[in-house]
Amino acid sequence: MSLSLSLSLSLSVSPSALLLLLVLAADPLVGASDVDPYRVLGVSRRASQAEIKKAYKQLAREWHPDKNKDPKAEDMFIKISKSYEILSNEERRANYDQYGQMEENQRPHQPHQGFHSFHSSFHFDESFFHFSRSGRDFADSKYMLHFAQFNSEVLPDSYQRPYLIKITSEWCFTCIHMEPVWKETVQELEALGVGIGVVDIGYERRLANQLGAHRTPSILGLINGKVTFFHYAVVREHLRQFVESLLPQRQVEKVMDSSYRQFLDRWPEENKPSVLMFDRRAETPLLFKLAAFAYKDYVRFGYVDQGLTETTEVQRRFSVNTLAPTMLLFKENAEKPADVIQARAMKRPIVDEFISNNRFLQVPRLVNQKLFDELCPVKQFHRRRKYCVLLITSEDDAFTSGNSAFRSFAASNTKEVLRFAYVYQHQQKPLCDTLLQDRNTILPQVVILERRSAAGKVVYKEVMGGWNGSEEDQRLLQEELELLQKEPAFLSLEVTLPELNNELAAMFLIRWMNTAYDYVSQLYLDVLYSNWREMMPILSLIFSALFILCGTVIIQAFSEPGEEKPSKPKPKEPPPTSAGPDGAESSSSRPPKKNFVEVTELTDITYISNLVRLKPGHINVVLVLSNAAKQALLKKFAKEVFSFSGTQTLHYSFLNVDKHQRWMDSLLELSPEAILAEQPGEEDDDEGGADDYRRDYTGHVLALNGHKKYFCLFKPVFTGEEAESSRSSDEDGGARSRSRSRSRSSSRSRSTTIQIHHKLDRLSLWMERLMEGTLPRHYVPSWPGLDKITPEG
Questions:
Q1: Cα torsion 127, 128, 131, 136: sign
Q2: Is the confidence at residue 728, as pLDDT, over 60?
């Protein structure tokens, strides 16, 4: 196989580069391409564009390198993309059908010269063999970006247009593969208004690090200050789709017959003119999307597909020509467009001029300082004076007629030196109060002003008499404006205006959600394409937060609760009863912090704080005792509850039944089920009356929940020979019924014969069930008072 090469090497080419050229020239694969795009896509030569597109999408999903792990997947995917690029373009498809051309710049009837390869979706042409001294394409020199230039010019400009940036370096031969596609794409997208940039990673390492680009070649997009990497095969159609995907999806609204009136009538809320573009394409043209993004702060955009039957009414309503793309611009009047443009080949400069000349309403509302600066610029020269006629009004229905009359007056005064605007007083109160000097002026009110400095200094004059839109008001305002142009000193008042409130500023929550969404989407892309180097800052932040959170949880789980300051014992109350560590044999979920149990007496003084006003979730465990059994029961009680004293929600008290027998009776009477469980069948045998019998509550324990108004009851357990038969405790849900023939006198005599300290033998088990929440609860409507003392009998 013979190959004719035209080498134009400068003397600066190194021997290593010359050796590489010789190797490439000797490559036996160089020659005419035998790739048939129809065979690659599996379609016939008579296939329609819809069939070609369908076959391409199916094969692209099947052979995408990220999903198909076959070693040949990358080469096959590149062939599929290249074949679709040829067949989707009617001109290139016709050239291939007639001449077998694979490239646009290939001459007909001539064998394909140069080097052609499908490695990594890049290809060579004759330009590969022409090296400059730096190894960089001369056409890229005007797009070269530097760190300072990027941050001062490109980054702010990315909020007005997207940028397509190529990352390259000297002697990057892989970068040369993409040059033909890159040139074609740049030529097309730059004409539409896309910014182009090239970064040499060898000279601009600092800028490359800022962009997150660490390998060559790379292509990335920049919009709104956010960087997005291109991860697909480098073909022109993919690059175009990538730029289109950077733009906001809802920037242009699809308009139909049923929605065009609503679209045009939203100018009062949006405070912007509206543009309708008519074309026969199913999708919104990229040119129009780019223009909508550039002027999103000034104009609203809608697109009408002329090929749909649902848009015939709006086309007929405005007499739109279907032979060429048309743009209609509407301001306050939704019945008639303020400006019209129509051209077969719509160019970006024409669109920019059309929108720039109509980017404001005839009478816009001042909603932020930026709009105020553009409408009413600061005076620079005498011949460039701009007077701002400002209507201070309200959005209430009562002011609608006056506002409409002001817009009509402004439409009849189209002098370049005058700018008309209005503000809502409640939205811009600092501005209105400054101009009206805090006087209770009746609205609406017209103010004529001229700005003298960017710091807010203005000269102004109020139009006397207010404004209601009458013919007299219009005549008086017209005379004031004519006098103003003759005598500039007519504006006699001077004041410094505050900065306007930004009525369009998003709420903090919305800004935070948008930022979070950007981080999550960027993290997803980095995970999808295994871009670990760029993920490190986000991953480091996430893992640091998780480590701190888990560490805090672990520390709190294994640490003891903080020591509470010991409360000072009250002088009238007995000192706290102490129990040694020998009481620790009882099981507990939390070890005690002290070597004693603090038990206070429940009296009429401590009753409110220890029961009625007890904190939610806290329980007061009360031991009922008598004077005779006080010391023995307190020691036994302290030993049984010692292992539970580390729980901060439990408090311990004792109640002297000799003083407060009536309180115990009242409490049990409020809960009938507790009385039945206490001594079932006893009331049937009561022949002597309530005065003949006095219940023995010694050794009972109450768990009182003051907030939820319920209590749990522990009754003494009798040990010895009758332990099993006479046990009566709440932990078993109530004891079995004793024989109704057993007399009360025998019950009282039995309690006195058994040793006192054995009454609390099962208390620790009852406490365990209390902590588990499995004990029966007896609810009361209210707690009985403790103010009465039982008299000594």
A1: positive
A2: no
